[in-house]
Write a structure and sequence with these properties.
Low-confidence stretches: none
CATH topology: Rossmann fold
Radius of gyration: 17 Å
CATH superfamily: P-loop containing nucleotide triphosphate hydrolases
Bound molecules: adenosine-5'-triphosphate, magnesium ion
Helix content: 25-40%
Order of helices and strands: EEEHEEHEHHHEHEHEE
Structural class: alpha/beta
Length: 227
């Protein structure tokens, strides 16, 4: 049997603000395999983004563990964490987060330049073609629609063929047609590139295309459904 690529074991997260403690995640366990799409659903404030931050090694559990490729994220040093985030994880956000001063192609290429990868330009062109936006290579983000911006963001998130793709409300700002395109690309990332995709979403369509649907409430997983 394959080892899960991403695993949370009784992971809890307590935030401390102004002396107040808030437990945003309580002993969450979850194992995700290569080529799967998992939808995290639940009300605002139930802990979806908190879970994604742990899964993407952007933050660490206050207790319990998060394993990526078999290693606990909290045991990695700064260099290992930077390498992990740059090489093995792709992030997609609700507000796209493209750099306005860079063209579409440059935005997609950027992660490869940061990782000093060879043939960065060609790889960026390939991914831009995959999202159907080759003709927008020299356009700037402000010249694109929201749906196009999100497809560029997906090309950027996938440009280094990451093992894990983390998407936080990727269709939150899109109309249904653009949202469906974005979801199709995330599904394709899992099917064609074997990525492990984890998506937090309020959209029923997103939940419907997932291999697994994880329902959260008050920082806990309350139901898991497999397609
Ligand atoms: N950095 C932080 N410091 C303190 N509390 C936080 C922090 N981030 C989130 N929280 C709190 O943790 C809880 C979970 O927040 P989280 O952002 O994970 O929810 P969510 O499910 O992503 O919600 P939404 O659907 O609105 O995006 C909330 O009560 C929130 O106020
Ligand atoms: Mg959130």
């Amino acid at each position: 049997m394959n080892l899960p690529r991403l695993e949370l074991r009784r992971a809890s997260k307590v935030y401390q603000t102004n002396g107040q403690k808030l437990e945003a995640l309580h002993e969450v366990s979850l194992a995700l395999e290569a080529g799967s799409v998992t939808a995290l659903v639940g009300r605002s404030g139930c802990g979806k983004t908190t879970l994604l931050n742990l899964a993407g090694a952007m933050d660490f559990p206050t207790s319990g563990e998060v394993f990526i490729g078999g290693r606990a994220t909290a045991s990695l040093n700064e260099n290992e964490l930077t390498a992990l985030r740059r090489q093995r994880i792709g992030f997609v956000f609700q507000f796209f987060q493209l750099l306005p001063a860079l063209t579409t192609l440059e935005n997609v290429e950027l992660p490869l330049l940061l990782a000093a990868t060879k043939r960065a330009r060609e790889a960026a062109r390939e991914r831009l073609e995959w999202v159907g936006l080759s003709e927008k290579a020299d356009s700037y983000p402000y010249q694109l629609s929201g749906g196009q911006m999100q497809r560029v963001a997906i090309a950027r998130a996938l440009v280094h063929s990451p093992e894990i793709v983390i998407a936080d409300e990727p269709t939150g700002n899109l109309d249904d047609a653009s949202g469906d395109q974005v979801l199709g690309l995330l599904r394709d990332a899992a099917d064609r590139f074997g990525a492990t995709v984890l998506v937090a979403t309020h959209s029923a369509e997103a939940a419907a295309m997932a291999s697994m649907r994880v329902q959260m409430r008050d920082g806990r997983i309350c139901a898991v459904e497999r397609a």
